Amino acid sequence: MDGIDYFSTQSVQMPQNVPFMIEKMQQLEVVEMHSHEFLEIVFVASGTAHHRHIDSRTNQEYTNDLIPGDIFSIHTHERHCYENCKNLVLYNLFILPEFFEKYPNLSKLEGYNLLLGERNELPRTVMHVPSNLMANISVSLDRAIKEFQLQLPCFDSLVIALAIDFLITAMRSKEVNYREVGSDRKILLKTISMLEENYAEQFTLNQLAKVGYMSVSSYTKKFRMALGMSPMDYLMKIRLSKAKELLTTTELSITHIADKCGFCTPNYFIKLFHREYQITPLQYRKKER
Predict the structure, then answer these.
(1) Are 65 and 50 contacting, i.e. CB atoms less than 8 angstroms apart?
(2) Judging by beta carbons within 10 Å of its beta carbon (0-12, 13-18, 19+), is residue 283 exposed, middle or buried?
(3) Which of 257, 231, 227 is nearest to 242 (CA)?
(4) Measured between alpha carbons, how far is 169 from 175 in angstroms, rounded to an integer?
């Protein structure tokens, strides 16, 4: 397709004995329009973006404002791009048709048609999962990525099982929302970006609500409906996620990491980290290394 990047199975280094590939990557501010020879399913791990995709058969364009927890698909006859990306981290699953031919029972799931069927309900093309499912999905997908990297014996069977676990979780859960694009999400995009870019700052609900010209109660309610948690809980999860990254990629002390991530004291950081991950920061650093 002239002027459009095209990704093949070779360009994403898809293994020959596994009919899909998975990657996790922080995106640039703009990801140019492109297409692929495989189905792509995307899970938004963090950040925000404006997403455009175009049906090549009808040339009809659809847009969505993405927030963490969104899941959507891009078919082989579609091209898409991301704009205004703010700290956008995506899990990308590249899947060949034979994967679904081998597991036809997936078609019985409630969300199958939305992700994999004909686009007959556009622009309702995005699922959204609550925070408790987000955590479970991230664990499964992170494990699959490690298995692809290490390629230990029977890794192909395990990554397929993990991919099926993700798909079933996303497509059958009653907790998954099927939402339309709305003006409230545009407001939330701005405050989510603020939290992710300035996670060490001490925000108040008043400050965040004013950005969206809402009352504190209205803003908190809409944020919780969209992300499944309060703004302050979301900020805490960002801080803990950044702390995990620093623990594995730097030699900074616990005190320094706590301060850098916006925790008031090292002890408070250790307490919250253990409550979230059932392990202390030092134990986590040792385990990951």
Answers:
(1) yes
(2) middle
(3) 257
(4) 10
> Are 49 and 78 in contact, with CB atoms under 8 Å apart?
no
Contact indicator for 245, 257 with CB cutoff of 8 Å: no
CA distances from 42 to 5, 141, 240 (A): 18, 11, 23
User: In terms of Cα–Cα distance, which of 161, 19, 157 is closest to 93?
Assistant: 19
Provide the 8-state DSSP code for 214: -
Tokens for 243, please give them.
């702390």
Q: How far apart are CA 221 and CA 66, in angstroms?
A: 19
What gap in Å lies between CA 153 and CA 5, rounded to an integer?
A: 35
Which value, in Å, is the radius of gyration of the alpha carbons in the chain?
20
| Half-sphere exposure in the Cβ direction for 17 (13 Å, CA) | 9
Element (H, E) at 177: strand 177-178
Which amino acid type is present at position 79? R
pLDDT of residue 180: 47
CATH number of 183-288: 1.10.10.60
Q: What is the pLDDT at residue 118?
A: 76
Report whether 67 contacts 48 (CB < 8 A): yes
Domain range summary for the chain, segments of one domain joined by +: 5-178, 183-288
What pLDDT digit, counting tens, does each position of 195-216 carry? 988 999 999 999 999 887 889 9
> What is the pTM (predicted TM-score) of this model?
0.77
214-254 confidence digits (pLDDT tens): 899 999 988 888 788 899 999 999 999 899 989 999 999 99
- Domain 5-178 falls under CATH 3.30.70.20: no
DSSP, res 27: P
